[in-house]
User: Which sequence fits this backbone?
């Protein structure tokens, strides 16, 4: 296992070894090295396994994006440790992924670069330039490309921004890991929408960050059987 | 004065080399524009000039000196260029490199007659009167650069356009960026040694600028760039011979006319 520990002592034996989680956190605190701590108290320990869908919600500045970046390995944890399955393939779709970028890039170009995915959310007109799509269409395109990528863990940061109400509902209703709609084995999604449809699905785990603290009870985050 | 048939034959190697170099540089311009580093073409061309001069003084082939120094500078600058691209800050590094290379080239030219000749040739371009051994070496350099660029194009473009992060693949991304940089610098060195510094810049800058907002896809943009490069080269070559003018200046003028002529035109494939 890859150990990215900074200050937390090693734990043994591994209580979840039989479940072979994709990623585990122990006593994790996230933030930046400048003294500002996004999640002031340790988050409840996570054990992300195949088929898991975890929704992270909270107010602006609560540290949702910071948590995602830490799970992705882009930021080191301030405290605690993250254990990843060896060779874990993480795909992180940040908030600004679908910002318009001018240039002669068609939908077909991006689809071919992403490995020729077939996804119901891909626009029908593949010869349209990406910078001519609306914000919502572009977000759907990026989501379709990311969702159709095979990876172990997909991290989505506010994926439903720019989507209309119908698009949001369809997205939440269809988001199930390891399915044709979402080929990632597990998904962690940041959402402002506490009442989103995905949150009501069975087996979905939720973390709510309030004022830099994880408000979710620890026992709510046990791996789905 | 119209050249005779034998004179046309004399210029044939340069013409054929231009048919290879011009579309290659024009297509490479798309990659440089995607990376936001078109200005780096000018810097690397100037470094290649200084390298050719240095190579001559050391008894090396000018092509080897140009390629080696430009590549070394490019690889040394890579961390700064990557950071600059990330912050969208980035032209300072290219301008600093340009100034440094220009100062080196000027000092070399001022202290050695062979370096001075090379310096003049790098401004004017030496395509018209290029010798056959140089055609072979520059052509080989250009083909090498093209092959490396083509090999890395898809993977590098994927990293640029699909703006999600795959933290587990960072070392692979670095290798791809290194390959892409090597290919582009090799192409620019070949361009500097044949069409000159400013014609190299014009060929990487103008066709890509022309197609950027007009083409409907990446493939058609690359094809149109290559076609514009060929058209500009053929027109400039013929005009420079017929009017007895410097090729590098004529190719810039031709590209300028193309730029003015296609305003409002959309390219389709």
Assistant:
């Amino acid at each position: 296992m890859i150990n990215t520990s900074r200050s937390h002592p090693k734990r043994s034996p591994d209580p979840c070894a039989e479940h072979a989680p994709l990623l585990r956190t122990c006593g994790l605190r996230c933030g930046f090295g400048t003294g500002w701590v996004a999640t002031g108290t340790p988050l409840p320990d996570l054990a992300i396994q195949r088929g898991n869908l975890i929704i992270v919600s909270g107010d602006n500045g609560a540290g949702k994006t910071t948590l995602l970046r830490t799970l992705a390995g882009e930021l080191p944890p301030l405290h605690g440790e993250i254990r990843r399955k060896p060779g874990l393939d993480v795909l992180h779709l940040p908030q600004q992924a679908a910002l318009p970028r001018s240039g002669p890039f068609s939908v077909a170009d991006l689809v071919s670069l992403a490995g020729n995915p077939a996804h119901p959310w891909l626009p029908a007109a593949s010869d349209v330039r990406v910078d001519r799509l609306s914000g919502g269409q572009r977000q759907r395109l990026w989501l379709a490309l990311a969702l159709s990528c095979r990876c172990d863990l997909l991290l989505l940061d506010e994926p439903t921004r720019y989507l209309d109400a119908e698009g949001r509902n369809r997205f939440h209703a269809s988001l199930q890991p390891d399915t044709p709609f979402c080929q990632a084995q597990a998904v962690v999604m940041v959402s402002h929408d506490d009442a989103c449809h995905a949150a009501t699905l069975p087996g979905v785990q939720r973390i709510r960050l309030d004022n830099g603290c994880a408000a979710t009870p620890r026992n709510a985050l046990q791996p789905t059987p | 004065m119209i050249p005779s048939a034998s004179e046309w034959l004399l210029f044939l190697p340069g013409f054929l080399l231009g048919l290879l170099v011009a579309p290659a540089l024009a297509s490479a311009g798309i990659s440089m524009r995607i990376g936001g580093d078109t200005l780096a073409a000018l810097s690397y061309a100037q470094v290649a000039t200084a390298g050719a001069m240095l190579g001559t003084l050391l008894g090396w082939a000018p092509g080897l000196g140009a390629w080696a120094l430009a590549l070394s500078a490019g690889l040394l600058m890579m961390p700064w260029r990557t950071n600059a691209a990330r912050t969208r800050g980035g032209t300072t590094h290219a301008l600093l490199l340009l100034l440094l290379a220009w100062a080196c080239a000027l000092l070399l030219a001022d202290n050695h007659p062979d370096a001075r000749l090379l310096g003049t040739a790098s401004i004017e371009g030496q395509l018209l009167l290029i010798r056959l051994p140089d055609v072979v070496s520059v052509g080989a350099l250009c083909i090498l650069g093209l092959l490396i660029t083509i090999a890395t194009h898809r993977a590098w473009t994927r990293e640029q356009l699909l703006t999600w992060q795959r933290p587990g693949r960072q070392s692979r991304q670095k290798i791809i960026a290194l390959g892409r940089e090597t290919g582009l610098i090799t192409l620019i060195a070949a361009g500097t040694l044949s069409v000159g510094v400013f014609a190299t810049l014009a060929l990487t800058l103008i066709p890509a600028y022309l197609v950027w907002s007009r083409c409907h896809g990446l493939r058609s943009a690359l094809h149109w760039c290559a076609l514009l490069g060929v058209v500009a080269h053929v027109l400039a070559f013929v005009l420079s011979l017929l009017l007895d003018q410097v090729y590098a200046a004529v190719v810039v003028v031709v590209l300028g006319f193309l730029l003015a002529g296609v305003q409002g035109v959309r390219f389709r494939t």
